[in-house]
Design brief:
The chain has 5 helices and 9 strands. With about 260 residues, the chain is α+β, with helices and mostly antiparallel strands.
Length: about 260
């Protein structure tokens, strides 16, 4: 079921698109690849309330002015105190909390988990400045940085159009089946870390639109593409779920496993 491996010189291959109306196909693809790409899963207007909260928070800080972000801000480190403070405003907001429980997201997550999900077990709202390729998150597995994460799945979505040049995720099909790989330790102030992958690894990535959703296992190897735009801030959200106590909230956020 996995698409043919791309040539590294040509960049990542397109993500194989799925629809949410065939649970058996979703399970089979998730088992084979460790991820799902479901374009158009959410109506774009479903993102509007959260978009408004995030836009207001960015504008108050001067991080985005008239749609433009200054590359000198260099937002993207997991331990940036400015970003951690931003999370403290956005994550508790009703629109952020409500989107995690969108019926469309939960329907797919229930298929993947085989159980009613436990919500908010490591959620984040990620910001990545333009012109800072050294801050691009390298290949890694979330399970290396989240506790008891082997059965955790993430729903990742951008809050607006996210072409490849803006730095969406790239995912590697298959290695999740091999379990947790060695990772470099996280050190405060030590920069981005991750796990080694071959130079010819068959990455997959696509231009993403509002409402497109990526689902991936905590054991799936993934990375961010660099934000190559001149002045656009990439804004995305991660909602994480694990099997458990229905829709009861979980352990909040973890700033270490972010893209």
């Amino acid at each position: 079921m996995t698409a043919p491996a791309p040539s590294p010189a040509l960049g990542p291959a397109p993500l194989p698109a799925m629809t949410a109306d065939d649970p058996d196909a979703l399970r089979a693809r998730a088992a084979a690849d460790g991820f799902l790409y479901v374009p158009g899963l959410l109506p774009p207007e479903r993102l509007t309330p959260l978009h408004a909260v995030v836009d207001a928070a960015l504008a108050r800080r001067g991080w985005v002015v008239d749609g433009v972000s200054d590359p000198a801000l260099r937002l993207g480190r997991w331990d940036d105190a400015r970003w951690v403070e931003f999370l403290g405003e956005v994550l508790p907001s009703p629109p952020y909390q409500a989107l995690a429980a969108a019926p469309e997201l939960l329907a797919v997550i229930r298929v993947l988990l085989g159980d009613a999900p436990r919500l908010h077990v490591g959620d984040v709202c990620r910001l990545v400045s333009p012109g800072a390729p050294e801050l691009t998150t390298p290949p890694h597995q979330d399970a290396a940085y989240l506790p008891d994460a082997e059965r955790v799945w993430t729903a990742w979505l951008a809050l607006g159009p996210c072409p490849r040049e803006l730095g969406p995720l790239a995912l590697l099909p298959g290695p999740h089946a091999g379990g947790l790989r060695p990772h470099a330790p996280v050190v405060v102030g030590g920069g981005v870390v991750g796990t080694d992958v071959p130079d010819d690894a068959p990455w997959h990535a696509s231009d993403l639109g509002p409402g497109d959703v990526l689902f991936f296992s905590a054991l799936t190897v993934h990375k961010a593409l660099p934000n190559r735009t001149a002045d656009r801030l990439r804004v995305s959200v991660d909602y994480r779920y694990r099997p458990g106590d229905g829709d009861r909230a979980g352990a909040g956020t973890s700033t270490r496993s972010v893209r």
